Amino acid sequence: MQKLLHQCLIFLLLSCFSFSSLASFSRHPNRQFGQAKNYEGSSDLVDLRYHMGPVLASSINLYIIWYGHWNPTHQCTIRDFLNSLSSSSSYPSVGDWWRTVRLYTDQTGSNITGNIVLAGEFQDSWYSHGAYLTRLAIQSIIKTAVSSSHDHRSLPLNPHNGLYLVLTSSDVQVQDFCRAVCGFHYFTFPTIVGVTVPYAWVGYSGSQCPGMCAYPFAWPDYSKMPPPGSGGVGGGSAMRAPNGDAGVDGMISVIAHELAEVSSNPLVNAWYAGEDPTAPTEIADLCVGVYGTGGGGGFVGKVYRGKWGIGYNVNGVRGRKFLIQWVWNPVKKRCFGPNALD
Ligand SMILES: *[C@@H]1O[C@H](CO)[C@@H](O)[C@H](O)[C@H]1NC(C)=O
């Protein structure tokens, strides 16, 4: 922990001078993004309903499983984002963004918690289940991380208020990753992990499909143009990533997306729209690609611009800035974030 913190501090000192160039473009056209549903301004069509299941109302102990070979600088950015969820930073902050998620309640009237603690980390740097993973294999990775049989320090198995976040490195391929999904959430099966506990997986897309999963810091190569409203200039660059890496900054918005959804629909029987629980439309699915007022239909929306053309919409701990997508606000009945102009 000490060593990692030290690396974070070094990164902050260097970060002013080390914005890297954008990741290379994906060779695979992104059909998914072009079809992304957007519900901004069409709230009558959204039938988001509560299906009587639990939400994550108790303080969350979040455990990260770093799968594969991870760059410590990237780990540091992600850790700072997660630590920003329940910290106070200048408005609009990551915590202010989470307030929209907190508006969801369960049948007892309890809101989703505002207390998310980074309770442990596990480095699976030996690729315990290989570099090609099925969706179900993510559960086996969690099992490995909570089993004490390894030399490496294992994580506690916490079915009471644990939430496991599996993050796969650039060289790991996951079923449906870069084709249908950038991340997903679900819950573990007792036959694999021993208990039922919610988890989420997000992959690092910087080399595999930045145009799909690191939008708007990269864009699909079929489009030939920066995303509209991203501020890219004349055939030039997309919006710059606020923490210097399109893959990791894009991943942070996907992590935000999955955390919002796993908290409001942890057992896939609480908050979702549509009639099909096997393909639920959840609170962040409704707002994919919307980061500010006027966003939607391929427009990022009104976000802040910083030095060197970086784009962001929220502040985090230690001076960090992040660009994270909005989520559905059940009171206003529209996509919303703390940087909204109205
Ligand atoms: C809890 O949710 C209700 C209903 O959305 C909302 O009115 C209230 O402000 C929420 N409380 C907190 C602390 O977010």
Kindly describe this structure.
With 342 residues, the chain is α/β, with parallel strands linked by helices. It has one domain. The protein is 22% helix and 17% strand. It contains eight helices and 15 strands. The chain has a five-stranded mixed sheet with strand order 3-2-5-8-7, with helices on both faces. A hairpin with a 5-residue loop joins strand 10 and strand 11. Helix 1 packs across helix 3. The longest helix is centred in the C-terminal third of the chain and has 19 residues. It is globular. The structure holds 2-acetamido-2-deoxy-beta-D-glucopyranose.
Number of helices: 8
Sheet of most strands: 5 strands, mixed
Residues in β-strands, percent: 15-25%
Sequence of strands across the biggest β-sheet: 3-2-5-8-7
Number of domains: 1
Shape: globular
Provide mean pLDDT, rounded. Answer: 86
The first-to-last residue Cα distance is: 41 Å
Radius of gyration: 19 Å
| pLDDT < 50 runs, ≥5 residues | 1-7, 9-41, 232-236
Helix content: 10-25%
The tally of beta strands, per DSSP, is 15
| Molecules bound to protein | 2-acetamido-2-deoxy-beta-D-glucopyranose
Order of helices and strands: HHEEHHEEHEEEHEHHEEEEEEE
Structural class estimated from helices and strands: alpha/beta
Keywords: Apoplast, Secreted, Signal
Signal peptide: 1-23
Subcellular location: Secreted, Extracellular space, Apoplast
Pfam families: Phi_1
How is the secondary structure organized here?
Blueprint (H helix, E strand, L loop, with lengths): L1 H14 L15 H4 L14 E2 L9 E8 L4 H13 L9 H8 L14 E9 L7 E2 L3 H10 L15 E7 L4 E2 L8 E5 L2 H4 L4 E6 L6 H4 L32 H19 L6 E2 L31 E2 L5 E2 L1 E2 L5 E2 L4 E3 L4 E3 L6
Parallel strand pairs: 2-3, 2-5, 4-6, 5-8
Antiparallel strand pairs: 1-9, 7-8, 10-11, 12-13, 14-15
Helix pairs in contact: 1-3
2-acetamido-2-deoxy-beta-D-glucopyranose binds next to loops.
